[in-house]
């Protein structure tokens, strides 16, 4: 799957002198190859002039590539070689609308570009000769318009073939900084990869490199972004290369840092300095083209490489029965990890990396070569239902991307290993946060924010056009928190799809005691209202700090829903609701918003589904409450914490102390 090949020789009349300006190859054979290629390719360079601003684009190559880089296996300089050339093409496309140049102009550009790099000493000849990925030798029309599928002469032709609106909207017109907005970054990544594969399908082609470059030109040539925006896009795309390409792949390494900012200059040279500074900043940005091509190529190759092994795994080998597996698991947008890669990421599944353990398996902290932390859930293969949940979760999360659903980065599917790899949520889960003796850190405003985030994720699932996805296990341990306190819903192992025209689906009852809709439990018919009920329980927990189910003095169990019914039956008024508020909040809560949230929670846990609101209605209420709180800076209530009809109870009746962990929940036990 070699990438674009670059010409390696100068066009000057003294190739030996030019080479000495960089570094002489240590091998006599390499010098012979260099001179031979020079003699073969020099005539092409003289046949036409290249319209690209090669000098400007070449400044993207950092000085480290000249000082230290002699082989592509030791540095990421090949990426910069490719990126600088492609950025020149993007700039020209932005000015003229031309995508791929006709031959012999295309050949002239590649030849003159390679010559310029050596003449300026930006790279060493040894680097260009070390790997075909650094060289264009052997294929002088690699970039020529019409020489391969996807290599269209104009940007208009590219956009007429494939819909690039998502890529343009999500990548170029999205947040100012994709690196500060992980959900937006993921959405951009998915849009770019999807557009490239759509172009491959439209052209009936396997030319991934050409189609990837065409997609990039089509997305970015309409209007070049400022460098800070472009750089954030690059850093977003780096995640794909590092998460997909770099892990366990010896010849794919992180790119070196961009060149340092230029030193202050005199007024007479300020103009030139500004130009150099812009080029230096863009050096990091242009790597996006490499990353796009890399991720698409690697996804394609890994898909082909793994298909045979996927097909060879039978239901017996997986401990499943019947036809639960269906078709092979999706791979688009996901990295297929090997067991050895996961062992490397988790230090051999070291017990010190253990985040938690549940019915489905153990969850470990992992770290990719890029430094990114991940959560690795190993599934108990001997438990047939849990392996089935593994498949279901991959199928669901591979299709769904939302800011408030946890992101599945990839999975491992081998005869001796089943594992899911998620983004790491450093804030732990909501259950642990509420259980902490310092749960007061979850202010009332933050609790409402968490509720709104979860409601938004559920509303998205319930309103999908092809049929609602019912989570079936909404509970605090399945709500993960980021460092900023924002929440994401996790663990889709027992989720169920309800067809668009159906009112319910009959199925085995799944869920966790205290959160299961009583109507679903008695009839075995699942619908979106089951999630509404479970969410209502979570909302009551956020309000009270109580557990979903607590033991009674007589040895029985009482649910938080019964407590809510008792409050309503007792005719508690507005001033009496203070007794149900988590006392750890002190007076830091707003009385009117507490009343509204309680009414909302109570409506969610009504015994019959036709009495409950839809999640989009729940979300609308929470958004309004949140807007009011944020507008008033969450002031303390005048009568906050006043005695009411519901005793606060001792600490044991509320969420007990527990260490904070940051793993996806592993428990999906039946009622």
From TrEMBL:
Gene: FER_0
GO molecular function, one term: ATP binding
Pfam families linked: Pkinase, SPARK
Residue stretches making up the Protein kinase domain: 349-626
Bias (Pro residues): 254-265
Name of the featured protein: Receptor-like protein kinase FERONIA
Signal peptide, first to last residue: 1-47
PANTHER family linked: OS01G0750732 PROTEIN, SERINE_THREONINE-PROTEIN KINASE PBL28-RELATED
Low complexity bias spans: 657-671
Alphabetical list of SUPFAM superfamilies matching this protein: Protein kinase-like (PK-like)
């Amino acid at each position: 799957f070699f990438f674009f090949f670059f010409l390696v020789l100068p066009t000057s009349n003294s190739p030996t002198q030019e080479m000495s300006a960089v570094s002489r190859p240590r091998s006599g054979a390499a010098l012979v190859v260099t001179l031979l290629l020079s003699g073969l390719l020099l005539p092409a360079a003289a046949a036409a002039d290249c319209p690209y601003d090669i000098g400007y684009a070449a400044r993207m190559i950092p000085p480290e590539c000249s000082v230290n880089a002699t082989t592509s296996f030791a540095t990421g300089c090949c990426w910069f070689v490719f990126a600088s050339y492609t950025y020149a093409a993007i700039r020209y496309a932005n000015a003229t609308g031309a995508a791929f140049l006709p031959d012999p102009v295309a050949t002239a550009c590649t030849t003159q570009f390679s010559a310029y790099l050596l003449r300026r000493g930006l790279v060493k000849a040894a680097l260009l000769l070390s790997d075909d990925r650094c060289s264009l030798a052997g294929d002088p029309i690699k970039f020529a318009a019409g020489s391969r599928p996807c290599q269209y002469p104009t940007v208009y032709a590219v956009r007429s073939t494939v819909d690039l609106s998502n890529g343009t909207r999500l990548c170029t017109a999205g947040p100012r900084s994709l690196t500060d907005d992980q959900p937006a970054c993921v959405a951009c990544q998915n849009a770019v990869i999807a557009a490239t594969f759509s172009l491959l399908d439209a052209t009936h082609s396997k030319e991934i490199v050409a189609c990837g470059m065409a997609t990039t030109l089509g997305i970015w040539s309409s209007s070049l972004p400022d460098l800070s925006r472009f750089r954030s896009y690059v850093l977003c795309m780096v995640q794909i290369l590092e998460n997909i390409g770099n892990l366990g792949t010896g010849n794919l390494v992180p790119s070196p840092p961009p060149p340092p900012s230029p030193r202050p200059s005199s007024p007479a040279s300020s103009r030139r300095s500004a130009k150099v500074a812009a080029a230096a900043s863009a050096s990091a940005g242009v790597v996006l083209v490499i990353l796009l091509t890399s991720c698409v190529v690697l996804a394609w190759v890994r898909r082909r490489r793994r298909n045979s092994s996927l097909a060879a795994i039978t239901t017996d080998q997986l401990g499943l029965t019947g036809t639960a597996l269906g078709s092979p698991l999706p791979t688009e947008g996901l990295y297929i990890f090997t067991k050895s890669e996961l062992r490397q990421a988790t230090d051999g599944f070291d017990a010190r990396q253990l985040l938690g353990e549940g019915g489905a398996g153990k969850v470990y902290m992992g770290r990719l070569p890029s430094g990114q932390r991940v959560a690795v859930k190993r599934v108990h293969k001997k438990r047939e239902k849990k392996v089935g949940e593994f498949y279901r979760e991959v199928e669901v999360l591979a299709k769904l991307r939302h800011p408030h659903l946890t992101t599945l980065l990839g999975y491992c599917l081998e005869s001796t290993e089943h594992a899911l790899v998620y983004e790491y949520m450093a804030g732990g889960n909501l259950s642990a946060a509420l259980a902490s003796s310092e749960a007061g850190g979850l202010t009332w405003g933050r609790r409402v924010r968490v509720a709104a985030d979860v409601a938004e994720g559920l509303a998205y699932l319930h309103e999908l056009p092809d049929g609602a996805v019912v989570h079936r296990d909404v509970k605090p341990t399945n709500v993960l928190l980021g460092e900023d306190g924002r929440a994401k819903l996790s663990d889709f192992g027992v989720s169920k799809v309800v067809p668009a025209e159906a009112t319910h689906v009959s199925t085995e009852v799944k869920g966790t005691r205290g959160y299961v809709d009583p109507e679903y439990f008695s009839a075995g018919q699942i619908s979106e209202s089951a999630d509404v009920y479970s969410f209502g329980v979570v909302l009551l927990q956020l309000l009270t700090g109580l557990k979903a189910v607590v033991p009674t003095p007589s040895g029985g169990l009482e649910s938080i829903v019964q407590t809510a019914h008792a409050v309503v039956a007792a005719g508690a008024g507005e001033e009496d609701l203070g007794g149900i508020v988590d006392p750890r909040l002190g007076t830091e809560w707003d009385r009117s918003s507490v009343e509204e949230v309680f009414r909302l929670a109570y409506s969610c846990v009504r015994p019959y589904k036709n009495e409950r609101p839809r999640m989009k209605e729940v979300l609308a209420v929470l958004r309004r409450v949140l807007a009011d709180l944020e507008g008033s800076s969450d002031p303390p209530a005048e009568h906050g914490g006043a005695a009411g009809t519901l005793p606060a109870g001792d600490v044991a009746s509320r969420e007990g102390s527990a260490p904070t962990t940051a793993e996806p929940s592993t428990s999906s036990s039946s009622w």
